[in-house]
Amino acid sequence: MNTTKQLRISPLQAWILAIRPKTLPAAVSPVLIGSALALKSGHFNPLPAAAALVVSLLLQIGVNLANDYFDFKKGVDTEERLGPVRVTQSGLIPAQTVKRVMLGTLIAAGLSGFYLVLIGGWPILLLGLAAILSALAYSGGPFPLASNGLGDLFVFIFFGPVAVCGTYFVQALQLSNLAIIMSLPVGLLITAILVVNNLRDIVTDRQTGKRTMAVMLGDKGSRVEYVFLLSFAYLTPIISVYTQMIPIYALLILISLPVALFPLRLVLYENGKILNKALAGTARLTFLFSLLLSIGLLINGQ
Predict the structure, then answer these.
(1) What are phi and psi of 301, to 5 degrees?
(2) Distances (CA, A) of 245 to 106, 239, 284
(3) What domain range includes position 23?
(4) 3 state SS of 93
(5) Does residue 121 form part of some domain?
């Protein structure tokens, strides 16, 4: 018997499960860094910054709902999954309801982004369309990105360079080399969140034919990938400070190292459901790192 169907929770609690609040730092972090860079360069504009945050949050929620719905429809989510409860698979919310809300959320993201298109023009339009299509293609369509080893790459691209540089562009109306470089650490850390998720699910994903990067790399390779992502996330600002591209205060990121050790230890030595704690820990690390980096970029003024 599917014990998840016996859960007795309110509709509100079910929708909170569906949107996965613990993943939302992944939507906030790149906007935070992009806006800090805009402020540093004297181009900060609160309205586009706020709109970028709304779009980012809606896209993240849309991706979460799409993943919940499409993985259920494709038979990827089963009773054996080790991750948090999926509302569609567990029967907490009907599949068609999840689908409608998912589409509505992505449409709302598009409508919210229309203001940014008016400001940023066709580059923002192209980025927005690409982001929405990727949100649908991540788990859905004839060639799901997540099921064909491309999830890590697309998460890095859209939560790193696209989100940070897009946020900066709608405020500064230009792109900078610094925005591109500072987009790399947050993209690496958010990709690390996905790596933990897929490492936890290697066995069940392999059984259902879902070929994530973790399935392709294997258990040991996925752990090495996680270490690589965290290492280069920290090395990028350190090298940037050494080359005097950014102020030394950006080394405030080192304060987050103790926070990084908890999920790192779990990823290196643990398996199964306990990796859910590593996933949440990596999400917390991503937000703290982004906050500290943003503060460090701004302390020395322009």
Answers:
(1) 70, -150
(2) 37, 9, 27
(3) 13-299
(4) coil
(5) yes
